[in-house]
Amino acid sequence: MSITHALLRTSALALFLAAPLTGAQAQQPAAAAPAPAVPAAPETVVAKVNGAPITQGDLAIAADDPALSLPGVDDAQKKNLLVDYMIDLKVGAQAADAAKVADAPDFQRKLAYFRDKLLLDEYLEREAKKAVTPEAARALYEQTVKAMKPDEEVHARHILVDNEDDAKKIAARIKGGEDFAKVAAEASKDPGSKAEGGDLGWFTKERMVAPFAEAAFKLNAGQVSDPVKTQFGWHVIKVEEKRVKPVPTFDEMKDQVDQYITRKTQQDLILKLREGAKIERTAAAPAEGKGDAKKP
Predict the structure, then answer these.
(1) 188: Cβ–Cβ under 8 A, 6 or more apart, which residues?
(2) Which reaction does it catalyse (predicted)?
(3) Does 135 map to a domain?
(4) Does 52 reside within a domain?
């Protein structure tokens, strides 16, 4: 168990997260939001524990810890809870120091490991921020869009039944003038689309099983198929519309583009660092690429 988890069991922050609102608290109207305060400088001291300061910068680091997430808590209350947590943390750390916990070899190894990890994470994050520029994102988007092949989509409805005879009767009813959506709501066995009149929305060919897709993409808009058999049963299909799949806009893809640039930058950086380093695996290490762990 980590120190964070241990402290969360007893700190004011943990008690707040665990305790449900009472009826009076739940019904109490929210107070008017105060005017935004000027952010305190990172070196501003918010508390002291046996003379050791806790600063605004310390609170900011704690606030970024996913384990201390406080959704729905106003800033003033969150700050008070974080101060209480940091006080608990500092008290515990001072007691651990007095008990010479830091002198243990196992602790030193853990400390070295987490120092290296934090350093690497911070370094990769800084380098990625340099790479994720508006110009780089736009260039990657345009390169990706240019390489995309036009992809046809259809907007179709279907009615699913158990046997061919029922499918033939339904196809005859539709081709005889009955409303497809109404018949689908009455007769279709597909719970996912029945309530929507058999509507499947827009889809590309590869998203459907082969016999269904082949039949649907051969139809023109407004046409109804003969019965089509798949592993799910027998289908009668109506194509409402056909189109070339729209290319997503830059704004729609921006988050994905930024994430790709971030991952690619960090991966390339690690590979470059390994190539420039003198790496020696001793006889005590498993042969590279021949570990016992099974890959998923």
Answers:
(1) 158, 159, 160, 161, 194, 198
(2) [protein]-peptidylproline (omega=180) = [protein]-peptidylproline (omega=0)
(3) yes
(4) yes
C-alpha radius of gyration, the chain, whole number: 31
Helices (H), the chain: 3-8, 12-18, 23-27, 56-63, 75-98, 105-131, 134-147, 164-175, 180-187, 210-218, 250-276
Indicate whether 290 pLDDT > 80.
no
Distance between CA atoms of residues 214 and 237, nearest Å? 11
pLDDT over 80 (residue 231): yes
In the three-class reduction of DSSP (H, G, I as helix; E, B as strand; rest coil), residue 187 is classed as helix
CA dist., res. 254 & res. 125, Å (int):
18
Domain co-membership, 187 together with 213: yes
- State the amino acid at position 110 in one-letter form: K
- What pLDDT band is residue 150 in, cutting at 50, 70 and 90? confident
Residues 226 and 82 in one domain: no
Q: Could you tell me the strand order of the sheet in which 199-204 lies?
A: 199-204, 152-161, 233-244, 228-230
40-77 residue pLDDT tens: 799 999 999 999 999 999 999 999 898 888 888 888 89
Max mean pLDDT range (9-13, 67-71, 249-253): 249-253
Which DSSP state fits 285? Answer: S
Q: Which domain holds residue 115?
A: 111-148+250-268
pLDDT for 294: 47
- Is 34 part of any domain? no
Q: Rounded CA gap, 175 and 129, in Å?
A: 60
Could you tell me if 256 and 127 lie in one domain?
yes
Q: For residue 140, which of 131, 149, 128, 130 has the smallest C-alpha distance?
A: 131
pLDDT at 274 over 90: yes
